[in-house]
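User:
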Amino acid sequence: MTTPTRAADVLARRLYQAGCRHAFGMPGGEVLTLVDALQAAGITFHLAKHENCAGFMGEAVHHSDGAPAILVATLGPGALNGVNVVANAHQDRVPMLVLTGCVDAAEELNYTHQVLDHQAVFAPITKATFRLNAEAANLIADKAVAIATTPRNGPVHIDVPISVADAPATDGGIRRAPASATVPDDTALAQARDWLSSSKRPIAIIGLDALQEHAGDAIKAFLETFQIPFITTYKAKGILPEDHALCLGGAGLSPLADTHLLPLLRDADLVVCIGYDPIEMRPGWRDVWDLTRQNVIDITPEPNLHYMHQAQLSFITAISATLTALGAGTTTRAIRDDGQPEAAKAALKKAFPQDDNWGPAAVIAESRAVLPKGTLATADSGAHRILLSQMWDCEEPRGLIQSSGLCTMGCAVPMAIGRKLAQPDRPVISFSGDAGFLMVAGELATAAEMQIAPIFLVFVDASLALIELKQRQRQMANAAVDFGRHDFAAMGRAFGGNGVTVRNRKELRAALTDAMTAQHFTVIAAEIEPGGYDGRI
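Assistant: Predicted structure:
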């Protein structure tokens, strides 16, 4: 007997065709058909302990397999619990399908319990929002995937009424072909080539858009041909290995790093923005260069409407094709010999030393030294993220993932769970402040249930360290930033994993070594003194 195709099946099968193999969320009665359809299509549904964490697990899987993330939430409070991670996906350009259950339209007319307008909630923080219709299920599913995965990527919401999920539907063959790569016109290319060949102090800044276009090979060839030093945003770290001679590291959040990097940008005679999306950057990165005395080329998938910076040449074109066209026929310029990039690189190395006896920098340095090449890291928001993003060198794209656009606390633990689920053979470590870890400690149960063994490292200083630092800088009295020192290692053991408290490099080294071969996850509580970030970020 053939089982009739439901509208939920049509949606699930299109997601499977898009490469999705995992979905995350918390089911309610309104999404049971949807969960059943996902499972039947070959997409495993994973139960998280909170919808926000479920979305971050999905994002981490996306960073591993490239497929859109899937977040499933039931109506009302379930859907609203996911608002933060959906907004994060919108700002961090993550393709995500947000599937929420809802009551039928007729039911809404005289029933109010947990009923609210999900589409009105999600419209400002998604690229599009749809209400599933059985007759147009295939069209809606295809449009949702196409919109989510078209640059700039982002979340798309689909509200699924209870009866529509079960309604018969036709599984058609609509699929939108990807757009062809484009390059600038000849006049603009000629101008850019002239600037490039005559430049004496060029610099490049590479951002998130380049990562999404998988443009690393083209960028490497272009920068090496013209010997252009480069800076990346934090999310673009590793698009070229950070031990590359031309790499100046990540930027955008650390005032200390900015003191060395911003002067290079202001002194450059040519700035090449390669997929540079300034949504990761802070106020100090507004209008960094002066178009009256500097040439700027901006290669981006969308028009520059953010006004964080401007350029004389804005190419709304494909990155790889544009760099190849720009390099073709351009006279190789004279090699820069003023020593400024090398001096800045040396100054950055001195500003973020690796040899502290103990403290947050020592924790990061020791972790980087002990964990093998190929370790995947996740970072929560807080003072430690600023330090980590400067000190944790990446040899591959997405070697360190974090919430850069929205800067959400509590993201590192679920991201590490998703990363380890998708790439179980790779070492995975999350770096969390103690406050952020407390927000999501319940997801340790999820790691135990999945039988995966990531490492969860917690900086324990019993303080919202970054906020406390800002409070002191403004000469305000200490208020609402300190809390108790809790036994985080015991939390790890309580949820079926390992738990270790460390107070020096030797203890941390031993804990990391044991964690790499452990059968269960490990929580490492690194106890540090308050004020450890002073002068370091």
